[in-house]
Write a structure and sequence with these properties.
Its cofactor is Mg(2+). Belongs to the adenylosuccinate synthetase family. Helix content is about 30%, strand content about 20%. By secondary structure, the chain is of the alpha/beta class.
Length: about 425
């Protein structure tokens, strides 16, 4: 059986969790393959809202097993709190979540360093991180100076490794950041406590996933953030510290590429981003505030107001190319019912020349080229049939599909599971 992938085609917050939730009913295993507690996924079921940070949102379904892949940086405190919150709603999280033994553990000092770095940055160098320590943990991973979940299963080895890591890390904390050193014994006890609670859930998930796929199980890969925040293919340096794109899904799960079938890209009918960085289609001033309020555009994790803009064709075409997207999901189209006319960015101009691609350099200096589409001015919230949409709304969807040269397979007209149009 194949593995399918859901990937963000913009700067994150596209509505991936709703799509993952919708697809989970036909899935056996859901895998979170990158990111950390800096990303929030919101699912609405029967009018009730659930917010996920580390636990895959497919946990809502009784039939699914959830896996935290090797590409994730796992914060034990946030993870245990999230498990507790979900279990209070009746979901048996700890019985259904497996953790990769190669998954890196995010430690309290990663958050302290993240806060110190962001606070000490000049305005033009601020990235706009969530200060959750994600980038610092990934940096230690690349420096080969990190703790992995599998290390927690061998107490003696963990103690030796932790002492070695903290010899170096404490010098950095004290001399460079003017922070207090970490007590090795306290950190050891902290990790042992997590191992006591979750040690039985830590396994070799690469072997597990490929074995289950070979047996015929259906796997769905889910990431955090989106293509525009990819460390390699996004708006560097205003990006996340991992690869939310298709390559990151394979590397962050260990699922063999031969199993990957459908890559489903998620995009809003407009655009948003959180934090700093270039945003060619951004709507500034009061008009941006209007769209933000209409769409409820505030971060699931931080509550930060999202910057809002119009749909950007060049960005979506870039996401299609980088990820190998063969089907798009269009979300939040109901938000646009407010508008008489809907602008769409159909291209860029850079230093007087038209660009035919999404540039890796100089995006902040491009001039967006717009086309205007007539709005429908009818409330379409909750409609679940394409034929029932107003003709101008149908025309808008068809125009976007033609512009990005990729089929739109699903349209979301609201936050609930039932507010969904299957186009095929």
């Amino acid at each position: 059986m194949p593995a399918n992938l859901v990937v963000g085609a913009q700067w994150g917050d596209e509505g991936k969790a709703k799509v993952i939730d919708y697809l989970s009913k036909d899935t056996d295993i859901i895998v979170r393959y990158q990111g950390g507690a800096n990303a929030g996924h919101t699912v609405v079921v029967g009018g009730k809202k659930y917010i996920f940070h580390l636990v895959p949102s497919g946990i809502i379904y009784d039939n699914t097993t959830c896996v935290i892949g090797n590409g994730v940086v796992l914060d034990p405190e946030y993870f245990l709190k999230e498990c507790s919150d979900l279990e209070a709603h009746g979901f048996k999280v700890k019985d259904k979540v497996l953790i990769s033994d190669s998954c890196h553990i995010l430690l309290p000092y990663h958050r302290l360093i993240d806060e110190a770095r962001e606070a000490g940055s000049s305005p033009e160098r601020k990235i706009g991180t969530t200060k959750k320590g994600i980038g610092m943990c990934y940096a230690d991973k690349m420096l080969r100076n990190g703790v992995r979940a599998g290390d927690l299963l061998d107490k003696e080895n963990l103690k030796r490794k932790l002492n070695h890591i903290l010899e170096v890390k404490n010098q950095e904390l004290v001399k460079y950041y003017d922070l207090e050193p970490v007590n090795p014994n306290e950190m050891y006890d902290f990790l042992l406590d997590f191992a006591d609670k979750m040690g039985k859930n830590i396994i070799n998930t690469v072997y597990y996933l490929n074995s289950e796929l070979e047996k015929g199980k259906r796997v769905l890969l889910e990431g955090a953030q989106g293509t525009g925040l990819d460390i390699d293919f996004g708006t560097y340096p205003y990006v996340t510290s991992s690869n939310p794109t298709t390559g990151g899904a394979l590397a962050g799960s260990g699922v063999s590429f031969r199993y990957l079938k459908d890559v489903i890209g998620i995009t809003k009918a407009y655009a948003t981003r959180v934090g700093e960085g270039p945003f060619p289609s951004e709507i500034l001033g009061e008009a941006g505030d209007v769209l933000r309020k209409l769409g409820g555009e505030y971060g699931s994790t931080t509550g930060r107001p999202r910057r809002c803009g119009w749909f950007d064709v060049q960005m979506i075409k870039h996401a299609v190319t980088v990820n190998g997207i063969n089907s798009l999901v269009l979300t939040k189209i109901d938000v646009l019912s407010h508008y008489e006319s809907i602008p769409v960015v159909v291209g860029y101009e850079y230093k007087g020349k038209k660009l035919d691609f999404f540039p890796s350099q100089g995006l902040e200096d491009v001039k967006p080229l717009f086309a205007e589409y007539k709005g429908w001015k009818d409330d379409i919230s909750g409609i679940n049939s394409f034929a029932k949409l107003p003709p101008l709304c149908q025309a808008y969807i068809k125009s976007l599909q033609e512009l990005v040269k990729t089929k739109i397979g699903i349209v979301s007209t609201g936050p609930d599971r039932d507010h969904t149009i299957i186009m095929d």
